[in-house]
Amino acid sequence: MDSTAPSHPDPHSLSLKVMRISQPLLAIRAPLPTTSSSALNELLTFDPILAQTHLPQEFGTIYVGQTFSTYICINNDSKDNVDGIIVSAELQDSLTKVLLLDTEKSFQLQGGASKEQIVSHEISEAGPHVLSVTLTYQTPISNDQSRHRSFRKLYKFSTKPSLNVRSKSLRYPLSDELKILVVTQIINVTDDAINLYDVLFIPTESWTTQDLNCDANGKKLMEVVLPGDIIQYMFLLRGGSGQGRLELGKIGIGWRGPMGERGRLSSMMISAHLE
User: Which residues form the Trafficking protein particle complex subunit 13 middle domain (predicted)?
Assistant: First the structure.
């Protein structure tokens, strides 16, 4: 996590702490109790779950479709009250800039006090991102005068693609009713195994959908997909009409990472060309 802030000859009364809120990560190895005279005590207090997990020290890996959540803490490092505090946070990628936080109304912090905020945003683009946090406040010059001060911190991180979705549509032959079979392949391009817990077809208004991805009891299948693996889903569409290019709908995908972190994606519009 990279951050930059402009320098000022006088130290600021306020400081910022920014951390990403995320699930713990699996540790590379689990430390075992050492062999010593206190081995029994170590065995009694050894927690295998905590030993195999650790908290991320930086923003870590973020995939498209996941929700990026950030903890922002404003600290008053002085002994005096600070007035007129305004905080704003923006997240920018190569295409868009999104305002995540704007306190609008100013607030006061007593000496030694702090104020916390949590902001969230669903990641929709892969590539470089910049989280910009700006803090503005007033410091007294005399009994009836004050001056505005501000500083900004930039936190740079990158996001990665999560799933590739490829779909094709086929018209059912030898049928009086218009039926279209949609075949979708989902490729796991992350570095981890993921659980596809919700894959559905979201049709346009003129179509109804039959999910062909259930077992004999009609229960929806949940799949674990390893990195680089491909899994296929099929949906049968009925009820539409027309010729030429017809818009059918989109694929909606819900998935979980190794520690239960959720992600959600929607495919591009799927269409069929009928003559």
Answer: 178-270
Confidence of residue 177 (pLDDT cuts 50, 70, 90): confident
178-189 average pLDDT score: 94
* Global confidence as pTM: 0.75
Query: pLDDT digit string (tens) for 227-268?
Result: 999 999 999 999 877 778 889 999 999 999 988 889 999 999
Amino acid at 91: L
Residue 244 gets the label, from left (phi > 0), alpha (psi -120 to 50) or beta, of: left
Does the pLDDT at position 47 exceed 60?
no
What residue ranges of the chain are covered by domains with CATH 2.60.40.10? Answer: 163-274
The span from the CA of 108 to the CA of 118, in Å, is 19
CATH architecture of 163-274: Sandwich (2.60)
Contact assessment for residue 265 and residue 165, using Cβ atoms and an 8 Å cutoff: yes
The DSSP-derived string for 43-81 is HHH--HHHHTEE--SSS--EETTBEEEEEEEEEE-SSS-
